[in-house]
Known about the structure:
By secondary structure, the protein is mainly α. The protein is built from nine helices and five strands. Strands 3-2-5 form a three-stranded mixed β-sheet. Strands 1-4 form a two-stranded antiparallel ribbon.
Amino acid sequence: xxxxxxxxxxxxxxxxxxxxxxxxxxxxxxxxxxxxxxxxxxxxxxxxxxxxxxxxxxxxxxxxxxxxxxxxxxxxxxxxxxxxxxxxxxxxxxxxxxxxxxxxxxxxxxxxxxxxxxxxxxxxxxxxxxxxxxxxxxxxxxxxxxxxxxxxxxxxxxxxxxxxxxxxxxxxxxxxxxxxxxxxxxxxxxxxxxxxxxxxxxxxxxxxxxxxxxxxxxxxxxxxxxxxxxxxxxxxxxxxxxxxxxxxxxxxxxxxxx
Length: 258
C-alpha cells in the first residue's frame, strides 16, 4: 500500500533476530510451564524423568534469549549512546505518554473516546516512537524480575551445591534463603520452592493477559503475523496504529501560518 504522496506504509517492525527471540521465548516458556506443573503436581501425561529432562533443556534456551539475544536486539537499535538509550526508554519504559494512552484505553472501555494508537512510526526519524501496548511496558519489567527470581530459585531446586567456574553459586543462593526464609517460618528450600511456584503462576497470569486479553482482538492479530513470520507492519490498517509522515509535519506548519 502507498500513501497519498506515493510513500510506502509498510515498515519493518521486527528484525529476524527479534522474531527468533520471541519464538524461542514463547516455546521455551510454554514447555517450562507445562513440565514444571507436571513435576509439581504429578500429572501423569508423561514420566517425571521426561518432564524434568525437557524442563532442564528449555532453561538455557529461555535464559540465553532473555539475557543475551533480547538485550542485543534492544541495544543494536538507535545511533550512538544517547540514541540507544532513547530507543530503550521509548520502547520499553512506561512513561507519561504511555500513562495518557492507558487513560485513553480505560476511557474507551467505558465507551468514552477512541482506543488510542500505541504502534506509532515516525517516517522522519525512521523508527518507531513506540510499538508496545502500555500495559505490556509494565509487564516487561515485572517479567524480567520474575525471570530472575525463578532462575535463582531454580538453581538450588536443581542442585544445592551447584557451581560454575568454581564459584559456589548454589551455596550463595542458599545462604540468602537462610536469611529470608525464617521470617516466614520456612526452611530455605521451602521458601525457594514456593517462590518458584509463585513465579510460575505469574507467568501463566502474564500469558493470559498478553495473549488472552490484550491480543485477543482480531484487529491485533496482524502483530502475530509480524512477530512470528513477516516482521512487517502495514500502516494502511489504522487499528491501534499511526504513521507520522514527513510531509504531514510540513503541512501542519504551513497551515498554522494561515
